[in-house]
UniProtKB/TrEMBL annotation:
Domain of life according to the entry: Eukaryota
Keyword Transport: no
Keyword Transcription regulation recorded: yes
Transmembrane residue ranges: none
Name this protein carries in UniProt: THAP domain-containing protein 1-like
Organism (species): Spodoptera litura (Asian cotton leafworm)
Single GO term (MF): zinc ion binding
Compartment annotation: Nucleus, Nucleoplasm
Classification via InterPro entries: THAP1/10, THAP_Znf, THAP_Znf_sf
All residue ranges annotated as the THAP-type domain in the record: 1-65
Amino acid sequence: MIFINSRFPRDKERRKQWELAVNREDEWSSTASSAVCSEHFETKDFYLTESGLRRLSVEAVPAINISPCQEPEPTISRVQPVDIQPTDTEEVIQLKYKVHRLEIIAENRKKRLNLMWQGKRRLRKKLERMKCLVKHLIKNKKENGSFS
C-alpha cells in the first residue's frame, strides 16, 4: 500500500472542513505545508487518471480518524529482535537491533527494486507495441499514397 500525503485545500471553507475532520487540538490551524495521509480518506474519495495515477477527488474530506488513544503500529525501531538472550551484553543487544533493522530495510529495498524491474519490463513491452503501431501506420499511409 502506498500512502500519499495530500495538502490542505486553499479554499478557506474546505480547509476548515479538513481541520475539523482531522480533530487536532482546539487552537490548531493548518499551515501551507500541512498535509493529511491518504489513510484518512475513504476509497470512494480517490479516482484514477488516464495515465493510471491515483488522485484525491476535489470534494474529498478526511473521514477516517486515527484516534490519539489508538496504539500505533510498530515501526522498525519498535520491532523486537527475535533472539535476545539474558547473557547478551548491552552492546550485543544494540547490534542485534541494528542487524534486524538493516534486514528489514534491505528487504524493503529489494521489493522496491523488483517493482522497478517489473515497471521497466512493462515499459519496454509498451515501447515495442508503440514501435510496431508506428510501423503499421507508416505502411498504411504509404499504401494509401498519402505519405509525402
